[in-house]
Amino acid sequence: MSSAATRTTGQDHLWSVDDHLEDILGTVRPLEPIELQLLDAQGCVLLEDVTVPVSLPPFDNSSMDGYAVRVADVAGASEEFPAVLTVVGDVAAGQAEQPYVGPGQAARIMTGAPLPPGAEAVVPVEWTDGGLGEGPVSGMRAHSASPEGSYGQVHVHRQAEARAHVRARGSDVKAGDRALEAGTVLGPPQIGLLAAIGRGTVRVRPRPRVVVLSTGSELVQPDEELGTGQIYDSNSFALCAAARDAGAIAYRVGAVADDAETLRSTIEDQLVRADLVVTTGGVSVGAYDVVKEALSSVADEDEEGGGIDFRTLAMQPGKPQGFGSIGPDHTPLLALPGNPVSSYVSFELFVRPAIRTLMGLTDVHRPTTRAKLSAGKALTSPKGRRQFLRGTYADGTVTPVGGAGSHLVAALAHADALIVVPEQDTSVEPGTEVEVVLLG
C-alpha cells in the first residue's frame, strides 16, 4: 500500500496511468481459497487441476433409440430383404441387468443405455419396422402402452458396421485425464463436466464482493421525479454492471448526499460485505468534494500502511483518482471521478484489473490491438496526458464516437473500444495506426 508520506503528497505529484495501475496491482492480493458446492462456484476461478476419476462415458452405450444387434445378423439387410431377428428384451438407461444378445437375436435399446453383452452395434429404430411387421417406423411405442414390443420379432432394413451408433467407454475423457486446469473460470460447461465426473465440490477463489457507491446531493434514483438542478444517478448502475461483467458480486448503494460524516459512516457500514469498495464522485478540488474530505484522514488512521491517497493522473478523462485501504481488514478502496465517462474509463483501466486480480486470474486486462483511425479530421489531445477516446472497432479500423467530453454518456453507450492517444501526441491524423482497448 502507498506509504503515509505518499498519501500526504499524492495531490502534488502527477502520476502516470501505468504507475497508478502498478500501485493498485502491487497492493491488491487474490482472495483466500474456499471449497464451494458446484453451483456456488460458478464464475469462480479454479485453484487446482481436476483429474478425471472415472471415464466418460463409463461404459459402452447407445447413441440412438433402436436395436442392439450382432453385425453378422444384419449383413446385407435391405427393405426388400430385411433381417428378421428375435427380440429378447429391453435395455433402458439406468437398467442394471441386460439381456444377452445371441445369434439371430436383438434387444430393444434406448439412448444412453449400456450396450448389452453379445451385441456389436445399434441399428436406429427408423431402420426397422419397430416390431410391427410393416414398413419402416419413425419411433418406438412407449413401453407402458405396448410392453409386447420388448419381445416378438423385428425386421431390420439396413446393415450396420461394428460399433455403429455406439459411444465407446472413455470416448469423452478417460480416467486419469486432466479435466480442468487451475486458473479456469468455471462457467456452465465446466460446472457440467465437474458434475459428470462426480465432483460435488471444488476448491476455488471466490468471486470478489464489490460495493459501488456514488456521491452527490444532486443525484436522484431512476423512476423518481427530477427537481431543479438534479440528475439521475447513472454511475452507480454502470459501475455495478461493470463489476458484475468483470466477475464480481456487486452491491450498489444508493447515492449519498454531499455530507462527509454521512459518507464516512456509510462506507464503514458497507465494509462487512466488501472485498473492494468503489466510490464515484467527490474526488476533485471543489468545495463539495466530500469523498476526499471524508476519507483523507479516516481510513486506517491507527493501522500501519492504511489510508487513501488522492492523486492527479496524467490522463484524460479521469485526472482525479483515489486509492488506498480502509477498515480493520485493509479493504481496498478506489475512488473514481464523478463524470460518467471518467468513471467508466477509470473502471476499465483500474477497477476491472483489481477485480480480476482478487479472483486470482493472471490475465487481468482487456485485450488490446492496433487499428487504423477512421475520422473526418485529426484528433487532438492535451500534451503530457494519455487520452482515452470512445470508439467503435471493426475489421482493423476504429472510428471515434462522440467528442472528448467526460459527460457524454450517450456516446459511451455506443462504443465498444477505447482509442489510446499517448502522452507525447497532441494530434493524430486519420489513417494513423493507433492502440485500441477492446471493451467487449
Which descriptor suits the 3D outline?
elongated
Strand content: 25-35%
Topology, number of strands: 29
Radius of gyration: 32 Å
Query: On the 0-100 scale, what is the average pLDDT?
Result: 90
Poorly predicted runs are 1-10
Structural class: alpha/beta
Specify the number of helices.
9
Characterization of this structure:
The chain is α/β, with parallel strands linked by helices. It contains 9 helices and 29 strands. The protein has helices at residues 4-9, 17-27, 71-74, 188-196, 235-246, 260-270, 290-295, 340-359, 409-413; strands at 14-15, 34-37, 45-46, 50-51, 61-62, 66-69, 83-91, 105-109, 121-124, 153-156, 166-167, 178-180, 201-205, 209-215, 219-220, 231-232, 249-256, 276-280, 307-313, 315-316, 320-326, 331-336, 368-373, 379-380, 386-394, 397-400, 417-421, 427-428, 433-438. The protein has a 7-stranded mixed beta sheet with strand order 1-19-21-22-18-14-17, with helices on both faces. Helix 5 (235-246) runs parallel beside helix 8.
